[in-house]
């Protein structure tokens, strides 16, 4: 409730400043602003201020394997009480957060799929019709593994930097015929018109948490947790808990070729998960499902502050969240029993040796 967050100022006016930390990239700012706007709408009496931290680690942030580095600065600011909440792309957050932090909100997921952005000279083409040996830019092992297998006539090369940098590299040079990016990020940047093709799950399944925004807070800050909890989208929360539990149980981390596809349909949560060798020639893919009981009915009765794969969602059915987590673990165990560990170990070793 708003009263928890309010305090009297000298003039008797009720207000509290909520400080949101952001990085300086355009995408980070857009994402932070969208969450700030939602909070302003829901809590018109709160003042929100944007604090900017860590403006220099931007390019590092997109390098595979550097993940904890760039969320770290924002967490430091949270820890030092300089900001109250920070907004991330959920897919950039590790499945185990450092102690003292939690994800207090997972917002309704945007289109989670990957998209093709063509060099202007290739307008009208698709991955299928691009000429033999066309170079596709991505540094995602997950994308490269799936697409190499599916489109063997194409070549894949690393491309790094934030979204603005990548678009520039694509358009202003002749190095890449196309690049692959998450549709969600392109949409948030206002670059939807550059999307020439959305990849279906048969072509390329997405990364765990892709397309969803997460609000990270201090785990002990119950006022802020309560405040941001209204931003949770229950279907997204359940899907992402299942996906994150799957990745965590595989001991996947962010830089291994692991992909997922989830759906909520007729009170069922479906999770498809896969692991790939670096060139996609070796892979394992399975689907499992679990029933999710009437969310709204249970909602009022549940009041527990438990984290599941880093997420605190006390207003969403506990049993449904447990079911989602179980689903992720069960699917991981199924793939592990078929040899997923070996595939991932080899992929990791080969990638480290590159
Ligand atoms: C992670 C990956 C990438 C980002 C790996 C993956 C892509 C790296 C690359 C974990 N984080 O997806 O397999 O393309 O070289 C990132 C983007 C977004 C969040 C950009 C993108 C925006 C979309 C979202 C980088 N993190 O994937 O195009 O909010 O989900």
Automatic annotation (TrEMBL):
Domain Porphobilinogen deaminase N-terminal, chain residue ranges per copy: 18-225
Cofactor: dipyrromethane
Every Porphobilinogen deaminase C-terminal domain range: 238-293
Predominant subcellular localization, coarse grouping: cytoplasm
Pathway: Porphyrin-containing compound metabolism; protoporphyrin-IX biosynthesis; coproporphyrinogen-III from 5-aminolevulinate: step 2/4
EC number: 2.5.1.61
Keyword check for Transferase: yes
Record carries keyword Phosphoprotein: yes
Compartment(s): Cytoplasm, Cytosol
Name under which the protein is recorded: Porphobilinogen deaminase
Encoding gene per record: HMBS
């Amino acid at each position: 409730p708003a009263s928890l967050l309010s305090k009297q100022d000298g003039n008797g006016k009720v207000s509290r400043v909520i400080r949101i930390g952001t990085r300086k990239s355009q995408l980070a700012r857009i994402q932070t602003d969208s969450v700030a706007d939602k909070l302003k709408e829901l809590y018109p009496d709160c003042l929100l201020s944007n604090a900017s931290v860590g403006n220099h680690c931007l390019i590092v942030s997109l390098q595979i394997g550097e993940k904890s580095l760039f969320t770290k600065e924002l967490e430091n600011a949270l820890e030092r009480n300089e900001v109250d909440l920070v907004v991330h792309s959920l897919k950039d957050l590790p499945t185990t957060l450092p102690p003292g932090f939690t994800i207090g909100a997972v917002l309704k997921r945007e289109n989670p799929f990957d998209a093709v952005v063509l060099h202007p000279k290739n307008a009208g083409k698709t991955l299928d019709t691009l000429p033999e040996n066309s170079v596709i830019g991505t540094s995602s092992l997950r994308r490269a593994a799936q697409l190499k297998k599916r489109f063997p006539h194409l070549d894949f090369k690393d491309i790094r930097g934030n979204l603005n940098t990548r678009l520039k590299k694509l358009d202003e040079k002749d190095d890449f015929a196309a690049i692959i990016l998450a549709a969600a990020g392109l949409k948030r940047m206002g670059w939807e018109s550059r999307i020439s093709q959305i990849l279906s799950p048969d072509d390329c399944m997405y990364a765990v948490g892709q397309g969803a925004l997460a609000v990270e807070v201090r785990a002990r800050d119950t006022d802020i947790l309560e405040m941001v909890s209204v931003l949770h989208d229950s279907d997204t929360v359940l899907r992402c808990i299942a996906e994150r539990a799957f990745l965590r149980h595989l001991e996947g981390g962010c830089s291994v070729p692991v992909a997922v596809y989830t759906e909520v349909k007729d009170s069922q949560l479906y999770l498809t998960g896969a692991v790939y060798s670096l060139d996609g020639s070796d892979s394992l893919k399975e689907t499992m499902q679990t029933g999710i009981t009437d969310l709204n009915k249970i909602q009022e009765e549940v009041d527990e502050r438990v984290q599941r794969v880093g997420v605190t969602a006390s207003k969403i059915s506990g049993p449904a969240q447990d079911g989602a987590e179980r689903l992720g673990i069960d699917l991981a165990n199924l793939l592990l029993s078929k040899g997923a560990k070996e595939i991932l170990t080899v992929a990791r070793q080969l990638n480290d040796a590159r």
